[in-house]
Structures are given as C-alpha cells and as structure tokens.
Amino acid sequence: MVTKRGSKTHKNKLFVLDTNVLMHDPTSLYRFEEHDLFIPIMTLEELDGNKKGMSEVARNARQASRMLDEIVRACPDGIEDGIDLTEASRGQATGKLFLQTEAIDLHLPPGLPTGRGDNHILAVVAFLAKRFPKRPVILVSKDINMRIKARALGLEAQDYFNDKVLEDTDLLYAGARELPADFWEAHGADLESWKEEGRTYYRLKGPLANELSVNEFVFDNKEGGGFDAWVTEQDGPNVVLETLTDYTHHKNNVWGITARNREQNFALNLLMNPEIDFVTLLGQAGTGKTLLTLAAGLTQVLDTKRYSEIIMTRVTVPVGEDIGFLPGTEEEKMTPWMGALEDNLDVLNGTVDEGGEWGRAATRDLIRSRIKIKSLNFMRGRTFINKYLIIDEAQNLTPKQMKTLITRAGPGTKVVCLGNIAQIDTPYLTEGSSGLTFVVDRFKGWPHSGHITLQRGERSRLADHAAEVL
C-alpha cells in the first residue's frame, strides 16, 4: 500500500486511474510525469472483464495488462512501497506506481451500492484522501458521471487530458486567413513578383510572414475582385505567395462541378494538386466535403489517370440502434454506411450530358467499377499504391486508428480525410481528442499536406436554416 514519504510527497499528486483511462490509452501509465499513480483492484478486475474480443477497447485492455505485467516483473523486491516508473517509461515518467495491496473498508453514503465497480473505485479515492490529507488525491476518469459523483462526494476528479490536442477547438488551424487591410502597405517594401506557367508569384517580407504556414490560404475581400493565394514557401520573415486556379469558373470545372464559394475553391486547389499527398476537409453538414472530394477523385482516376482507383472507408459507428449482422461480402456489408457516397454519385452522374439515359447508366457503371468500399477492420498490414483514399466521418477515429490508416499509403497515393468535429459518435472521444483534430494540428505546415475548414453550407436554404436554428 502507499507509504508516507518525505516533503516531496506533498508536491507530487496521487492520481487514481479509472479503468476507462487505461482502455482509452494504455500508455497513460507513462503520461503523468513526476506524479504518482494508484490502481485499485477493481480497475484490474474491470480490465480483466474487458480483455476478450477483437474490438479496439479489448485490444487496449490487453495492452494495458501487458504493460502492467512488465512494470511489476521489473520490481522483484515487492510492490508495497510503489514501483518506480523511470526505467519502464524510459524517463518519460519519474513517479511511482502503487497497486492496491490491502483490503479497504468501503465507507460510502447508503445510496451508493458498493457492488458497483465505479462506487468501489470512489471508495478507494475517499480512503486515500483521508489517509493523505495534505496530498492532492485525484481521480482520473473519462466517464463524466463518475467525475460528477466524485465531486458530489467532495473528492477531486478530472478528465484524462493527455490525448487532447487542443483545449478549445476554436483555436484549431482553419487553413485560411483574411489579410488585414494594411497588408500590402506593411509587406510591399521589398515586393518581388513574377509569372511562371500561368501563375503569378509574390515574394514578400513583413511581420505577418512569420505567422503564415506552408500551404495556408490567404485572401482579401476588396471590392471589384478580391485576392486569393496560398503560401508555397515560408522562411522566417520571407514568404512566397502563389495565385490559385479559379475553380468557380466553368472552364475549370471538375467532373462538371464548380466551386460555389471561396473555401470550396481552396479545397479543390488542394484536391487537384498532385504535390499535396494529404488533405483534411472540415465542415458542417452540407458544405460539400464529399461531393468535391469525389469529383476531384473521379477526374484524376478516369480523365487524367493520375490514380488507379478510389478507395472509400469510414468508421461504422451507428447513430441509432445497431442493425445487427449484415449478409454479403465486405463491400455489401459496408453499403448501408455509404449512403453519402450514393447520394453524391447521383449528383455527379447528373452532370454528364452526353448519351442520354443509356449514356448516364454506362457512366454510372464505369464510376462504380473504379470506386472500392473497404472496411476499417481489415486495413492493418495493407499498402495502397497509386490510390485515391477517402476517409469519411474521420472525426470518429482515435489518433491511433488515424495513424494506422494514413500509414497504409504507398507511393503515389493521396489520402483525403473528411469530417465534422461537432458530430462525434464514438464513446470517450471529444472534439479536442479526435483523430481528425490530431492530424490537422500535426500536419500543419508540412509542404505536402493541406487543410481547409469549409464554412458555408451549399445544400439548400432549408438545410442552412435548420443548421442555424435547430
């Protein structure tokens, strides 16, 4: 059990881990730096109860158990005084790990049944808080109700923050920024301008240049035609801007689709650029994420032959009740989840004017033959060469799943992640800890990736009004 130590004890916090923290992130054992960890017996019991199966939760439970086993085996002298985590974590954590090694009298209000695992863990936290009155004893849990119960009992509780990329998603990189009114006056002193292959380039120097990232879009809203460009080079106070292809004009249409607003134009510039290997598109329902991505994919697969085929996948998290086991092949099982794909193909097929009804039917068959629908469950170990990979509803992926998917990309493959971080259906995943937020933040500034947040809905006046008022 926990023994009292010197004055250092009062500076170090004692974190009691709930089971869901270990099942969410097995490496959380090494994420508390100099602070100590305490694992109740009930946490180990619940880990044991969740280890069977092939789900992500079961895999994480087994991984957490293996890590605990390694830590305990590395301490042959006994575990009563805690196990130093410095060596096991390779210096990431310098605190101690304590396992519950004695029976604890459970003193809880009569309304809380002691048979429940959550209440058992709360009783352990209450016991430790009483034993160490001068030391912060904090429960760490991903379960909101558990944290509320802890606070109702006068105990300290907090969420597991280590997996959060951002505390406030309003700070998330938007991919585009409006230039201030005095931009050209402040940055025009050493302005260089030249033309190359139909594009105009500007080399500038000034205070805003330090804040810009490579592949970030910039624009101004001056009357009589604004200025749209993106950053192609960034070196300290120097920056090179390049003008964009105008996909709002019908002569630059992509599979019959033109951009309806500035952000859609930015998105098509990313999707159609062969130098950009990784694209993330964020936006609420109806902003055109899937339609633009599919139009760009079909053009580059069927017209320019840049990629051999489109592969589309998404997380199968139901919003309502699950519909049970589905018959058929992998593709047939995924079909109910791919309604968005079918809806968008109907729109794109309607842009083909030649050949009448027969021509459209033939085009639809050709399109479907070049789009493969894959399940996430069978992605490990695969390599996609020369493919156009679309990950839909990417906000429901954890950072670990996102890494598994993106590392499937072989030579010549482009990966496009689509999502709306306001619509997360995966348990224990929040806007700040979603895999989509994670990759937007981590890929910022890489020369072969780009991001844009689509702001304006283009679905219909009804959908726009509903998104606003409901």
Automatic annotation (TrEMBL):
- PIN domain residues are 13-148
The organism's place on the tree of life at top rank: Bacteria
* Protein name per its UniProtKB record: PhoH family protein
Q: Which residues form the signal peptide?
A: none
GO molecular function list: ATP binding
Q: Does the keyword ATP-binding apply?
A: yes
Task: Give an example GO cellular component term for this record.
Answer: cytosol
**Is RNA-binding one of the keywords UniProt gives this record?**
no
User: Keywords assigned by UniProt?
Assistant: ATP-binding, Nucleotide-binding
Say which family it is in: Belongs to the PhoH family.
